[in-house]
Amino acid sequence: MKDILIIYSSTDGQTRKISEYIGKILGKERSIKIISIEDVSKIDITSFNNFIIGASIRYGSHSKKIINFIRNNNKYLENKYTSFFSVNAVARKPQKNSPSTNPYIKKFFDKTNWKPSRAQVFAGKIDYPSYRFFDKIIIRFIMLITNGPIDVHTSHDFTNWNDVKSYAMKIIRDTEK
Fold first, then answer.
1. What is the mean pLDDT of the chain?
2. Domain identity same for 80 and 132
3. CB of 120 within 8 A of CB of 99?
4. What are the helix (H) ranges across 1-82?
5. Domain count of the chain?
6. Dihedral sign from CA coordinates of 159, 161, 163, 166
7. Do 91 and 16 share a structural domain?
8. 115-170, pLDDT tens digit by residue?
9. Is the pTM above the cut of 0.90?
10. Alpha-carbon distance 84 to 53, whole Å?
11. Alpha-carbon distance 169 to 154, whole Å?
12. In which domain, by residue range, is 146 found?
């Protein structure tokens, strides 16, 4: 059996980037496979012992494909080591950057009825220059009402990469058991 499967759902690439960074750290100690939720049906998930699932937020929700994957595989996952991380701009605020205080991760667990072994929240990236016109306007409006960055000519990376590294190191310790 392979050791760890990292499945991610990324809207603009930040969750993929975080997944790859986690994979790079874990890959020094474990056998790792990283795959997009778009391609997960192409592999046999039963050949993995441990799972890390990461998903971004867009307009208040995680990907339906991630939600459905969890629902459809909940019985299998409950007997494995699992970890979930959510990537969202709300987590840029200290009072919303933990699983117990982040509204999106709470909503996700309510929807999926899933209890992973470990959960984490990371602040994402607001990348205005790469957004389509409509997304740029809507996200700027959301940032305006939540006191976030509104300069549409700039990217704003809120991800604390030391927190991501710490999370990966905790997974290494968790899966040694």
1. 94
2. no
3. yes
4. 14-26, 64-77
5. 2
6. positive
7. yes
8. 999 999 999 999 999 999 999 999 999 999 989 999 999 999 999 999 999 999 99
9. yes
10. 5
11. 32
12. 125-157
